[in-house]
């Protein structure tokens, strides 16, 4: 099959007029040609950090602090989760995953609470939906028998040495929140030799030197940090030190729309649209060890087609800036999931 239009090809998303040729779920060629199409073809998104378990608590808790909102065991999120039955929780996650798939997300790195049953609930929720919901389980080292990785809450909560070792033995990634409310848990998190740090709002030069030396990627969630009022990560500084990917964090706090996360990030920071699109696609794919997030021959054909002639996008001047700063779920024409 072929997708025609303006193709955002390669690591730099160079706009190529022509077509992407796909065979058996793999991109086999990007061909330059004169085509009659307003479509913009880009890699599907990889959301580098979500908690979709709180899909039943959308926009609850106006005015509460981060701790009052989401800290276990008595934060509002956890009280609402305890009150909900499993069917409602799975259905809530299923609706969120469906929206994410429809709005162009190929995969999500989901931090899943609740040990093995939590991971099993995510598997049930994602069954039949065209999205790879990667479960970073927690709350039980045995979760690594069924999860795709371990997603630790933060180094001030426990030492996580056992979980870190189990993840290494299982050949699965170990990810951890760090530097969300303050800097006290950043060095201890880096000491665990993680495969991914999440947030890093309060990272300083010393932390980032270690991150660069160890080649540790970072997932940032700027809209979440905005809502919880913990400060904002210095995205350009993080980009200067390592791979940085975008995540939408808790569904309770924000819609899991990568379009919204990109637009906010692009407008809030001195980062180019190319850098932000890379944070939403290639970076997350690299972190998760995936063969997508990039349009070139040999990659998995997880692709997103925007209709460049919607009322919203018609007349756009720059396809990358249009995709990053302006487009939304209603401009999605097609999502290909290999
Ligand atoms: Zn998180």
Automatic annotation (TrEMBL):
Pfam families: Amidohydro_1. InterPro entries: Amidohydro-rel (IPR006680), Metal-dep_hydrolase_composite (IPR011059), Metal_Hydrolase (IPR032466), MTA/SAH_deaminase (IPR050287). One of its GO terms (molecular function) is hydrolase activity, acting on carbon-nitrogen (but not peptide) bonds. It comes from the Archaea. Residues 40-129, 167-311 form the Amidohydrolase-related domain. PANTHER family: AMINOHYDROLASE SSNA-RELATED (PTHR43794), CHLOROHYDROLASE FAMILY PROTEIN (PTHR43794:SF5). This is Nucleoside deaminase. It comes from Halarchaeum nitratireducens.
